[in-house]
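DATA SHEET
Item: assembly model
Revision: 1
Owner: S.N.
Input lines:
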Amino acid sequence: NAGVTQTPKFQVLKTGQSMTLQCAQDMNHNSMYWYRQDPGMGLRLIYYSASEGTTDKGEVPNGYNVSRLNKREFSLRLESAAPSQTSVYFCATWDRSLGANVLTFGAGSRLTVL
Amino acid sequence: EDQVTQSPEALRLQEGESSSLNCSYTVSGLRGLFWYRQDPGKGPEFLFTLYSAGEEKEKERLKATLTKKESFLHITAPKPEDSATYLCAVQAATDSWGKLQFGAGTQVVVTP
């Protein structure tokens, strides 16, 4: 049982390049999220998908796009990477079943934009 | 605007030296307050959810408490394996989709 799997774990990009971060979950949760974590700032929500077929902006969506491919997969795309997007990105799922209410995170993807 | 402030930013403890971490929050109605543990290079790991003032939860050497304005994470007789960054987050009453507002965390180092 892998939980939430993110790929790649590390990536270095040049300014202007594009890339997609992949996230897959095997917990059958409806809701999925992308957060970024920067030193001293805590985790900030980029985009979320409440259920398959829906996506919504979070706190810091500029420069990103997302795709909820199916119930299991939620990808984050950087169309033209900027140094300000250097960060650690975390995918998460939300278990809203009775008595749960838990956000479960993947291991993270560390992105450096030069 | 919802806000979560954690203090101190960093805490260095001797093994066995108990202490408390603080999480102050402002939110327009609280649905839940969450504590997570994060080890270097890993994703946050869920510890507790608290829902109402006066509620307490315990797990091994950790105990979380909640008031109307803040939460405390008490670490009793810590061991080196308790070294981690502890994150606090709140979910507003108006949110149904798990959109949590996180604090910046408290980095705890426990030395033998």
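QC remark: Chain B has a mean pLDDT of 95.
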